[in-house]
Specification:
mainly beta, 5-stranded mixed sheet, 29 strands, Immunoglobulin-like, cell membrane, 11% helix, 5 helices, L,D-transpeptidase catalytic domain-like, 3 domains, cell shape, 414 residues
């Protein structure tokens, strides 16, 4: 509806045929012709009465009544379930809801036009403007304009997400969001997060406990895919009295495809990039008493040099190496693929001696770019996949790191 918003009932008017005053001479001639012609029995003034009757019909107020809840000027309005628009003795033809920055709230008019409700929650601490129009059975319009302000939450939560905005990652990288408060309404939170890909592919979310939500496709991402994550959490009541305070869009790109397969029995790792075998590297895996997990694991962190203390992962006093070179994390519990300078050269490719990690030959200080560990580090990115097989251990838990690929698609979506 063009023009300024109309408050209350509006009037639809037609174009009325006006009467043009005739010169006196012409009027007299007209009267003379009428008198001489005869044959007209129409009472004088009949045309004026009909015009007045028509004007009364046109100018009658619309019978449609627009009702908006919450009432005009309301404060501390709930972000979900409070906003509703309805029409009595008519049907809604237009409903527009916007915040002070001009952002529209998506909604849908019910069949028959009796009501309208938003398709999303509202943001907290935000002023909204409502403009609604309805028409009655005669097509006459009635409009209503209101404003209200949503509540200011006392308790809030956000989601810490990975990967980072603008990053390029490997084909195994899921979208992983860790919430600062335990969520008791996971459906509401998940509805407020949208993950899309170009080229398009079905993407589904899966909850690990009540504070972590991961998204992935059925199979690894295709190389070159552009992924966009929209976090519309502002105003979502994730648990009673605790509201999201985050509205953010991030995107990342999937780089080349690299999947490396560790065979713990053969003591080798085959690095495959874009379907082609790039390199076979001798390795050492977990010793018989400290075996390496089997399964699909995703590189989540990279450190050129880092400290590894067995006490932090349940191996109290067994080791504390302050300068482990070329380390890449595969699990939250401490599984890494990393350089090893303390084992003899002959160990790699022939024996399993580690505390559960995958070790590659390296030098102390990570200063030799020609070692197998340095090559692997330089040719890997966050999100690359490392698959371990033929280890005498169980399969890694899907929530131990970014390792949801160890669940079938049916388990993931179930």
């Amino acid at each position: 509806m063009n023009g300024q918003p109309i408050s209350g009932a509006s009037v639809r008017t037609g174009r009325r045929r006006g009467r043009t005053a005739l010169p006196a001479l012409a009027m007299g001639a007209l009267l003379l012709v009428s008198a001489c012609g005869g044959g007209s029995e129409r009472p004088a003034g009949g045309g004026a009465e009909k015009a007045e009757d028509a004007a009364k019909v046109v100018s009658a107020a619309s019978q449609a009544v627009v009702t908006v809840s919450p009432e005009d000027g309301a404060k501390a309005v709930a972000t979900s379930g409070a906003l509703k628009v309805s029409a009595g003795r008519g049907r809604l033809t237009e409903v527009a809801v916007k915040d002070d920055r001009g952002n529209a709230v998506e909604g849908r008019i019910a069949a028959g036009g009796a009501s309208w409700e938003p398709l999303q929650h509202l943001a907290s601490a935000t002023r909204y403007q409502v403009h609604a129009v309805a028409e009655d059975t005669e097509g006459r319009e009635s409009a209503k304009d209101t404003t209200f302000t949503t509540l200011v939450p006392e308790n809030t939560f956000i989601g810490h997400y990975t990967p980072e905005n603008g990053s390029t990652v490997g084909v195994g990288m899921p979208v992983s969001i860790n919430f600062t408060r335990g969520i008791t309404d996971p459906e509401a939170v998940e509805r407020a997060i949208k993950v899309t890909a170009e080229p398009s592919v079905p993407i589904e979310g899966h909850w690990f406990g009540n504070d972590r939500l991961d998204f992935r496709p059925e199979k690894y991402w295709a190389a070159g895919t552009r992924v966009t994550v929209r976090l519309n959490l502002d105003g979502v009541e994730g648990r009673p009295g605790v509201y999201g305070k985050q509205a953010k869009t991030v995107s990342f790109t999937i780089g080349r495809s690299q999947v490396s397969t560790v065979d713990a029995r053969a003591h080798t790792m085959k690095v495959v990039r874009d379907g082609r075998l790039l390199k076979t590297i001798p390795i050492t895996a977990g010793a018989p008493s400290t075996t390496t997990y089997n399964g699909q694991m995703v590189i989540s962190e990279k450190y050129e040099v880092t400290r590894m203390n067995g006490a932090t992962v349940g191996f109290s006093g067994e080791y504390d190496i302050k300068d482990v070179p070329h380390a890449m994390r595969l699990s939250t519990s401490g599984t890494f693929i990393h350089g090893n300078y303390w084992a003899s050269r002959g160990t790699f490719g022939s024996a399993n001696v580690s505390h559960g990690c995958v070790g590659l030959r390296d030098v102390r200080g990570a200063h030799d770019s020609g070692t197998p560990a340095a090559w692997m580090y330089d040719n890997s990115i966050i999100g690359d996949v490392v698959v371990v097989k033929n280890s005498k251990d169980k399969q890694i838990a899907p929530d131990n790191g970014l390792n949801g690929w160890n669940m079938s698609w049916a388990e993931w979506t179930g």
